[in-house]
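README, section 4: Worked example with a bound small molecule

Sections 1 through 3 covered apo chains. Here we extend the same pipeline to holo records, where the ligand is supplied as SMILES alongside the sequence. The molecule in this example is zinc ion. Nothing else about the input changes; the structure line simply encodes the ligand pose together with the chain.
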Amino acid sequence: MAAKHPPNTFKNSSPEAQRRLAYFLAYFNDRRDQILANIRQLVEIESPSDNKAAVDRVSEAVAAKFAALGGRVRIHQARDFGNHLQVDFAGNSGVKPVLLLGHYDTVYPLGTLASMPCKVIGDKLAGPGVLDMKSGIALMLHAIAALQDWNSGDGRRELPRPITVLLVSDEEVGSDSSRRITESLAKKSAAVLVLEPSYGFDGAVKTARKGVGDYTLKVTGKASHAGLDFQKGVNAILELARQIEKVSGFTDLNKGLTVNVGLVSGGSRTNVVPAEASAQVDVRIARLKDAAGIDKKMRGLRPFNRKCKLEISGGINRPPLERTAGVAALFTKAAAIARDLGWKLGEAAVGGGSDGNFTGALGIPTLDGLGGVGDGAHALHEHILISELPRRAALIAGLIETV
Ligand SMILES: [Zn+2]
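The generated complex, written as structure tokens:
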């Protein structure tokens, strides 16, 4: 069907909104090098999840940047992980805040920069954690600065709504120590914008993420000499193999439910009937309503060989982020802003989880994948596209204004 409107007709937004977006885009184009410099600074402070001192260093650097914009900094102390950082910006107190959510831990061990330096290659900025998600942190900073600039320039003093920033230190290792903080701040917010990496080189946002579970199956049999006493042994590996076949059969692709046995161990040597074997299992669910069912199936496993003992531990630790009406409405707003900025914003459903899963499961409208555009998260070629930064920042600033 032919388009009813010429390509540059902004039928979804007011002239005021269009003026604002044009202002943001020009603002960020002018400051592209500053955004880039900020990202580099953050990438060059390595922050693996399991090193508290390192993560606290990046936390302090980030806190100073937000404080310089006038945000009220609150540190949530964590004992076993880096501290979590909350920053509040005052705004029109008649409306609920928007929560900008992310993390500053990375999957890269200390010293990674030596072999994987932070560097510009053409339009790419490469480095550990640059996409996931230090560019997202810099985008938050600059979006808030632009909103302050726009609103003060207009003779108004306050932001259109309060903004809460939450950056956690343990997202890459399951968010156990930060989940409670994320959930309590989300409950007070009108919407949650998650600045995790976008999807694909077109920068699609994420409107659905699978929930994640981890289980361990441990089988205990009985050891014996494979030659002398074969019949006295109870082979734990054989039992585990049968269990693996069974749990793999729980996969239901139509429901978006997958069960992956990713790690197995067992036995001591070839001439011994093995007394022990275990498997680690990754479970993904697209729908919250499937969580209880798969959990029951996993916990309901019984040994095929009654002489074996079977122990099951673990559970579903992240609920899925489902594309609810609230999520869809938020995406529609984002797509309208992108259209005003001259591009078509896509959306994606992905298998990986983030802290947006927690906030979405509470029923708070959550839009994820608003951060950097690039490729290679957690991999040697991790990078962002520098040219995408201005319009990405404009999208985020525009969303904060209109959420
Ligand atoms: Zn991430």
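What to look for in the output: The first strand starts at residue 72 and ends at 76. The CA atoms of residues 64 and 73 lie 9 Å apart.

Section 5 describes how to batch many such records.
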